[in-house]
């Protein structure tokens, strides 16, 4: 399927370039991108969205003449949400497919396994989804970059929103693995800084990832009657949680609810008009947010092709491909070390806005979007109103605080 | 007090749902003596059938409730004829492997047909909303789940004890050779049993659809849960599946509420304790 | 018959020589593929001591595999332990874990044994997932150094070709030990128990204790495989303890042929190569894997290698008759 897709993509590219009279020649050797995402199991939708975004960018670039006159070619591998599988996939892409650059990774657990051995395969790697602070923190290395919003940035946004409410006592419902625990730790740290009076529950709820029945956890929160609840569940778990919580009157209670990934389009489109109104929800990119021509063109092209607004994972993958294009053009060559160095400190235009990879830790300085859900009869998914786009500079921790030491 | 009531009701609802999902696994094991690894996938097919019939075709939920399980049962009958039919004389590991292959095929087919997105099914108007129960708020839908559980449990009991078809199935379960000698068409019975078990799993999927997110791979969690249910209750025992489901429902309902740190491991401890003290399960093994 | 044995031995020797020099003739990536096949083959062969030889289907052997992986990863991370002593610790540790789990499990037989091993395996998985201060929870142990072998040989294990040859040596040695075990009187008792436990019990052999021995030995070999797997993938994570990881050696043993010694290794090769090739040309790899699996189960009753051996033996027998 990958091979067929890429062939198909190149065919479109060639046809388009013929039509446009531009200069991608079929005989030019393609620049190869290797991408590792989840394509199986409950979270497969994230891989599919990323694939849509990356394919769109590759086809656009090829249609307008490629990079340095060469077309792009992208090959996908399934991580199966397992670090060991993703690592074998990375070796396969580098040594067998001989790709020039790597991108992808959805799960934080997979990323913490993969990132330490990226220097071994000597290939630049842009992470487009996994949000663990460690890969641009204590595990950072010169080959690894991240174009997407990480947990710190995501949760700093939530804490900013929380600080503007009257709520003083907070608890959480989050998935019972590193992501949920770290989200809660950062929430306490950031909200504690913004509102020193805030109090945090010592019995937070951490249902197992993939929990089917959230009722006991929902009841625990309703019993505790906090002022505010911070929810870091995502994907199918969050859909389950919201539906079961609605059934139990959770959203009619007197507390504020902030969901750090509640505005992800896969969640909103799954729920449709079952999404409760008046909940503060966040996402790592909101298609209707950024006001720039790149975003307009991206959303329009994506909608035309798939009939839905792009998810954050589609934007991230799309942005990563353009980051490579920019890096290759800056370096003037495809050499791996040259691209690695060109990415550091580089600023490029993505739908989410102007993105810079910080030299200190290779984290993109980007911010999340938060807003309050409102039913919109004209839209297939709930809209965010009012909408807040948090600036990357305001939510990204200083390099000294990330634990990353690239100078070594 | 309220929290105990809430946990109790939640345990009951979850238990009944688990019973609906797992009882088919136990019937298939009881009669065909195979561990059906694809059982969770059949449950998933039921949920996707509900999504297709109500969400995409706009039919009422009640039609999905009947049509979903029937469709999956027919599909299962075909699968049984094509894949499983000729290997019943093999060791149990061969059937295990074959149903594992079936699981892979169904999982991929679901992604192919429905895509990877997350979906929901809206419950019928009449089952939406909540009611109060001893100071707690409970969803009306949980009442419906309980009602379906009672109907299916009672119906199966009547079927196996009162009808000829049910008695024939039990006969085929306890002695294949003898059944053949007295003129029972054993291959046909096996096909029917597999279809019946699959149909009930799909019914579980339809019932779960309005309260569970539907996505590819949603059956993979449920298969281990179903194993736990049938082991606790008693492999091959039909009343055992009910008891096992209620016990597991309580482990989840109370464990998640009052011992959240041990939540993941508790079901397996329960399973191991039952196996060690009473390997045949709480109800003991009987032919269905 | 003897000439056949001679021929088989010669083929095996030639194969081993070819394997040793694999880094000099195969595409680079196949060094990784071959390493994975060897390690998972050892895992499947170790598992098969309980399954194929003793007749007990375990769905919890990932516990020993994963435990071995965690032992090596944590020793490397905290003590920078060289590989060989770390592997020894993995073998002993997994053996002890198998002793504890086996003590309970061998009391049961048939499907009850299977379900109990599943339960214990998932308990170990849950512990790795939840005991965050020690196991690092869902992230697992990553970023540990892979440097020294421990014999003063100065080998750089970070070089995949070197690691492959070390793996080949360890796996061949372990397989030889395992083979001797299966041929020993002890191994023959196991086989007899698989066929008819009652009759073995009549001869005065304590069946349950022999089952436990088999279980512990099997756990040790699986722990060794896991101990090699961690430095190979550079990670020890809870997924390695999950029941779906336990299902892999079952598939491999049956695919290759659980009644033959080399079957699990052949099964591992089939499984890994299929996955590598299928994922290259289609993202619907589960569909193809499922269909291939189903066809093999239906048509190759004794696994690929087992069926091939049957075929060769049948021909040999015919020839002996003719002569």
TrEMBL record, chain A:
Which Gene Ontology biological process is one annotated for this entry?
amino acid transport
Protein name (database record): Amino acid/amide ABC transporter substrate-binding protein (HAAT family)
Signal peptide start and end residues: 1-26
Domain Leucine-binding protein per the UniProt entry, residue ranges: 30-365
Statement: the UniProt record of this protein carries the keyword Electron transport: no
InterPro entries reported for this sequence: BCAA_transport, Leu-bd, Leu_Ile_Val-bd, Peripla_BP_I
Listed A to Z, the keywords are: Amino-acid transport, Signal, Transport
What's the family? Belongs to the leucine-binding protein family.
Annotated organism of origin:
Dichotomicrobium thermohalophilum
From TrEMBL, chain B:
Keywords for the protein's UniProt record, in alphabetical order? Amino-acid transport, Cell membrane, Membrane, Transmembrane, Transmembrane helix, Transport
Which molecular function terms from Gene Ontology are attached? transmembrane transporter activity
Q: Which residues form a coiled coil?
A: none
Q: Does the keyword DNA damage apply?
A: no
| Residues annotated as transmembrane | 12-35, 42-59, 65-84, 96-114, 140-160, 181-207, 227-251, 258-277
Q: Which InterPro entries match?
A: ABC_transp_permease (IPR001851), BCAA_transport_permease (IPR052157)
Q: Name one GO cellular component term.
A: plasma membrane
Tell me the Pfam families matching this sequence: BPD_transp_2 (PF02653)
Q: Report the record's Gene Ontology biological process terms.
A: amino acid transport
Task: Identify the domain of life.
Answer: Bacteria
> What coarse category fits the chief subcellular location reported for this protein?
membrane
Homology family: Belongs to the binding-protein-dependent transport system permease family. LivHM subfamily.
Q: What is this protein called?
A: Amino acid/amide ABC transporter membrane protein 1 (HAAT family)
From TrEMBL, chain C:
Instruction: Name where it's found.
Output: Cell membrane
Give the record's keywords alphabetically: Cell membrane, Membrane, Transmembrane, Transmembrane helix
Q: How does it sit in the membrane?
A: Multi-pass membrane protein
Q: What are the transmembrane regions?
A: 28-51, 58-77, 83-104, 111-128, 162-190, 210-230, 250-273, 285-304
Q: Is Membrane one of the keywords UniProt gives this record?
A: yes
* Name this polypeptide is given: Amino acid/amide ABC transporter membrane protein 2 (HAAT family)
Gene Ontology molecular function, alphabetical: branched-chain amino acid transmembrane transporter activity
């Amino acid at each position: 399927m990958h091979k067929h897709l890429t062939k198909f993509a190149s065919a479109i590219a060639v046809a388009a370039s013929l039509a446009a009279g531009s200069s991608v020649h079929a005989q030019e050797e393609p620049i190869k991108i290797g991408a590792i995402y989840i394509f199986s199991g409950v979270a497969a939708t994230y891989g599919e969205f990323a694939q849509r975004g990356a394919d769109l960018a590759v086809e656009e670039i090829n249609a307008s003449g490629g990079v340095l006159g060469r077309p792009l070619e992208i090959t996908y591998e399934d991580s199966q949400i397992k670090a060991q599988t993703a690592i074998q996939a990375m070796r396969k892409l580098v040594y067998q497919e001989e790709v020039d650059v790597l991108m992808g990774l959805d799960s934080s657990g997979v990323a913490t396994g993969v990132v330490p051995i990226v220097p071994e395969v000597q290939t630049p790697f842009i992470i487009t989804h996994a949000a663990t602070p460690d890969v641009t923190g204590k595990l950072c290395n010169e080959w690894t970059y991240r174009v997407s919003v990480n947990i710190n940035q995501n949760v700093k946004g939530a804490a900013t929103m929380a600080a503007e409410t009257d709520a003083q006592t907070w608890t959480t419902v989050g998935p019972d693995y590193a992501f949920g625990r770290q989200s809660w730790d950062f929430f306490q740290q950031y909200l504690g800084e913004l509102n020193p009076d805030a109090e945090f529950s010592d019995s937070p709820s951490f249902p197992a990832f993939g929990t089917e029945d959230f009722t006991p956890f929902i009841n625990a929160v309703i019993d505790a009657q906090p002022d505010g609840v911070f929810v870091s569940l995502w994907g199918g778990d969050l859909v389950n949680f919201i539906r079961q919580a609605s059934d139990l009157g959770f959203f009619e209670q007197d507390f504020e609810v902030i969901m750090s990934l509640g505005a992800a389009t896969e969640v909103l489109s799954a729920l449709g008009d079952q999404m409760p109104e008046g909940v503060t929800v966040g996402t790592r990119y909101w298609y209707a947010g950024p006001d720039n021509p790149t975003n307009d063109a991206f959303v329009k092209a994506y909608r035309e092709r798939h009939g839905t607004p792009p998810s954050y994972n589609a934007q991230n993958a799309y942005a990563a491909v353009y980051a490579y294009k920019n890096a290759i053009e800056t370096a003037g060559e495809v050499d791996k070390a040259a691209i690695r160095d060109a990415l550091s400190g580089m600023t490029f235009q993505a739908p989410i806005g102007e993105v810079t990879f910080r030299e200190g830790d290779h984290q993109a300085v980007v911010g999340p979007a938060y807003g309050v859900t409102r039913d919109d009869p004209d839209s297939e998914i709930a809209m965010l109103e009012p909408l807040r786009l948090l600036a990357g500079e305001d939510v990204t921790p200083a390099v000294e605080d990330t634990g990353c030491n690239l100078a070594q | 007090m309220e929290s105990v009531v809430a946990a109790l009701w939640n345990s009951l609802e979850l238990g009944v749902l688990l019973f609906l999902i797992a009882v088919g696994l136990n019937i298939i094991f009881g009669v065909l003596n195979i561990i059906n690894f694809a059982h969770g996938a059949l449950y998933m097919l039921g949920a996707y059938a509900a999504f297709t019939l109500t969400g995409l075709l706009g039919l009422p939920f009640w039609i999905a409730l009947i049509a979903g399980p029937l469709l999956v049962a027919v599909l299962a009958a075909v699968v049984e004829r094509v894949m499983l039919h000729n290997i019943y004389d093999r060791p149990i590991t061969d059937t295990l492997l074959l149903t594992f292959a079936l699981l892979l095929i169904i999982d991929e087919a679901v992604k192919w047909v429905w895509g990877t997105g997350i979906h929901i099914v809206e419950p019928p108007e009449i089952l939406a909303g909540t009611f109060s129960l001893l100071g707690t708020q409970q969803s009306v839908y949980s009442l419906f789940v309980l009602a379906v559980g009672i109907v299916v449990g009672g119906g199966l009991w009547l079927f196996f004890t009162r009808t000829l078809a049910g008695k024939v199935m039990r006969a085929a379960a306890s002695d294949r050779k003898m059944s053949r000698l007295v003129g029972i068409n054993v291959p046909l019975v096996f096909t029917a049993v597999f279809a019946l078990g699959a149909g009930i799993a799909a019914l579980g999927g339809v019932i779960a659809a309005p309260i569970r997110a539907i996505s590819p791979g949603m059956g993979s969690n449920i298969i281990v849960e179903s194993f736990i249910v049938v082991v606790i209750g008693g492999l091959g025992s039909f009343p055992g599946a009910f008891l096992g489901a209620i016990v597991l429902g309580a482990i989840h309902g109370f464990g998640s509420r009052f011992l959240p740190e041990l939540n993941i491991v508790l079901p397996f401890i329960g399973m191991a304790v039952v196996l060690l003290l009473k390997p045949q399960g709480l109800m003991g093994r009987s032919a269905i | 018959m003897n000439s056949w044995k001679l021929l088989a031995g010669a083929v095996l020797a030639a194969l081993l020589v070819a394997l040793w020099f694999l880094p000099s003739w195969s595409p680079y990536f196949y060094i990784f593929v071959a390493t994975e096949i060897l390690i998972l083959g050892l895992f499947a062969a170790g598992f098969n001591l309980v399954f194929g030889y003793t007749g007990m289907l375990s769905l919890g052997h990932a516990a020993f595999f994963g435990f071995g992986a965690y032992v090596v990863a944590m020793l490397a991370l905290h003590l920078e332990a060289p590989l060989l002593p770390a592997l020894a610790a993995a073998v002993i540790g997994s053996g002890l874990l198998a002793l504890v789990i086996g003590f309970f499990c061998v009391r049961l037989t048939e499907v009850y044994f299977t379900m109990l091993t599943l339960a214990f395996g998932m308990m170990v998985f849950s512990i790795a997932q939840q005991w965050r201060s020690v196991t690092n929870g869902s992230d697992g142990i990553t970023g540990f150094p892979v440097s020294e072998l421990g014999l003063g040989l100065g080998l750089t294990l970070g070089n995949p070709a070197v690691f492959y040859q070390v793996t080949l040596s360890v796996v061949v040695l372990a397989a030889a030990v395992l083979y001797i075990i299966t041929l020993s009187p002890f191994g023959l008792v196991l086989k007899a128990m698989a066929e008819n436990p009652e009759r073995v019990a009549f001869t005065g052999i304590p069946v349950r204790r022999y089952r436990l021995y088999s279980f512990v030995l099997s756990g040790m070999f699986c722990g060794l495989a896991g101990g090699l797997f961690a430095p190979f993938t550079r990670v020890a994570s809870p997924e390695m303890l999950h029941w779906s990881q336990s299902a892999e050696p079952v598939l491999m043993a049956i695919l290759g042929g659980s009644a033959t010694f080399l079957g699990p290794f052949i099964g591992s090769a089939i499984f890994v190569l299929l996955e590598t090739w299928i994922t290259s040309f289609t993202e619907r790899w589960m569909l193809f894997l499922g269909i291939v699996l189903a066809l093999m189960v239906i048509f190759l009753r004794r696994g690929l290698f087992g069926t091939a051996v049957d075929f060769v033996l049948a021909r040999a027998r015919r020839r002996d008759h003719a002569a």
